[in-house]
Structures are given as C-alpha cells and as structure tokens.
Amino acid sequence: MIHHSLNEIAALIGVIYEAAYDRSRWQKVVTDLGDLFDGSRTCISRFRRNSVDAVMSVADPDLLSQETIEALLRDPIYGTSKAEPVGVACRRPSAADEAAFREREIWLNCFRPRDMHHGIACNLASSSDAYWFVDIQRGARQPAFEDADVDLLQKIAPHILRAGQIGRNFQAGSLLALSFSHLPFGVVVVDGHQRIVQMNEAAETILAHPGSLLRASGDEIQAANFKDAQPLRKLVANACAAYDDLMPGKGGTLLLRGDREQPDRPELLASITPFVHAPAYGLAPEHCAMIMLREVSFQVSDGFADHIRILFELTPAEATLAAALAAGYSLKDAAASSGITVKTSRTYLERIFAKTRTRQQSQLVALLKSTEPFR
Questions:
Q1: What would the pLDDT profile of 157-177 be if each residue is shown by its tens digit?
Q2: Residue ranges of E strands in the chain
Q3: What's the pTM value of the predicted model, to 2 decimals?
C-alpha cells in the first residue's frame, strides 16, 4: 500500500467533480486515479453485448475490439463482475478464482500480453443491457493490491458515482434547454409569480413584437390586455401549486385575443402546464409553469399547400384548392383564387374527400387545420 496525503486524495476528488460538468475531464480522472494507485492501466468503461466504450489511461483500440468482447463474454469473469454490487470495490479476479482465471483464454490472449496481472475495480452503474465500471491494473513487476488499496478505492467510489449522476442530470438539462431553443413555437418557463426562468428564441420573438398580446415586463411575463391578466395569473398559480409537496397542479389553456379594431393582430393560444425546475443547493425543487405559445390565425402558413399535398397525396391542383378552403374561402372563391371553374372545383373536392377520408367541407377544413405545422 502506497501512503497518500489528504491533499492528493482531495485533489483527485476535485477533478472527479469537475468532470461532472466537463466530460473531457474524465480523461484526467482516469490518469490521476492510476497515478494515485500506482497503476499501469486505468479505465472507466461501459460494457455492452456488442460494444465497449472506455476512457483509458493507455490508448489501446484492440482492447475494445469485437474479438476481445466476445472472448470476455465467454469467460466466467464477465458474469461475476457484472453481478458485483454497484459502488463496492473489490479485486478482479477474486483470490479464490485467480488460479483458474490464469489458465483461461481471456487471460492468455488479453490480460497477460498487456501486463494486467493485478486488478481492483468497482461497478458504477448497471442496466438491462450494459454496465459501467472503473478498473485499475498493475503489472507483474508491481506488488499486488492490498486490502488498504481496496479500502481507498471504496472511499473514492461514491464520489465517482455521484459525479456520474450529476453529469447525467447536467447533460439532460443541457439537452432539454437545447430542445427548447429549437422548438418551432414559443416556450416560457415561469415561477408562481410569473417571473421568467427560461424561454426559447421563438418566445423571445413573440414577446418582443410591438403588438404582442404577451410581453416581458422586467423579469415577468404579463398579458397586454387587462381582461387576460387575471386568467393568466390563475392558470400559472394553479400549474405551480403543489399538493402534498409532490403532485403538481394542472394548468390549462388561455386564448389571448386582441381588440376588434385590430383584426389583423394575431391571437395567441397559451397552453400552461406544470414544470418542475431543477433543485439547487439540496433544497426541494421549485414548482414552475411552462407556457407554450402558438399564434392563432385564419391564414395558413407559407408552404401549407405543399405540406398537405405530401401528407394526403394530393395533386398540386387539389392541394391549392384545399389550402384555399382551409384559409376560410368558400368553394366559389377558392375556385376563383385557384384559377378553375366551380364545376372543376367540385370534381377536385370529391377527390380530396376520398383521399382525406372526409365527407363534407367542414370536416375537411377541420382536418387540414389540425395538421398545420407549427410556425
């Protein structure tokens, strides 16, 4: 057993937690872990039935080859290693199995050529088709690992486990934020007082529009019209409410409408739903509300005719007529705007009914509007 100072161990633990937020730091974790234990090889691996990913102190692509994977799957050490409890450090192979292990294929073709004579390891996570572990090896000219080495890895293992959990949560949060940013409709996350926690670019565009029915006032989201202010406040408060500190509220939907004198001003449909924001400093998560915003308009979006043509396998002429009907035109006006006669439009309409499996014009318009892409 090599004696280490608390400063050395603390420095390694610091790097482990840095890796929770910066994936590139796991390479330094592996290197520093090997140095702390005077190991010849160290790795953190994810083992699957058909592949292995690893961060290794010694680059060795052949160790991750399909041939090596298949050899390891055939060896009893795979089953016994995977069955070890998560977070428990141990020798691999165990002292009882070491003699038999050194006569088997995996030792002769994989471990011995790489001078992997003594190992300690710890499982980090397990699922139905994979398991993650950290492994430290020493060569034939180095001393075998002692109980004190296993005890030290046991003390470090919880920090590796925790950093892995933090990293997964952090990555999930980053992916969620990235997903929000690319959604084709507005998303605003607010607390119970309508203070803005996060919003995507589409929501920023909607709120920044001079005629928008919702606006950002300071760090709060507010309805532009007084009549919408109270319903919005109630829906947000309900979505942020917690029952028994566990179950969130229900939220709801609000249609924000402009003045009659401004018929061209787009209306907004606000769908408000509970959203649990990430906890901080060990405190309970804050209950927030997510407001999803869509503009409501009689007009169909650009490219709508092409959209329904592909969706329902319409001809270009049929799609043009159907798009005009979806925009609110009568059949006579839709025919005129499409440059065809009313008689021809009726023929097209019958074909459109057959392809969309509708029977009347009102059903057709309702179906087409329901398929309109987000703007």
A1: 999 999 988 888 777 667 667
A2: 41-48, 52-56, 89-91, 118-126, 130-138, 186-190, 196-199, 214-217, 220-223, 242-243, 247-248, 252-256, 267-276, 287-296
A3: 0.57
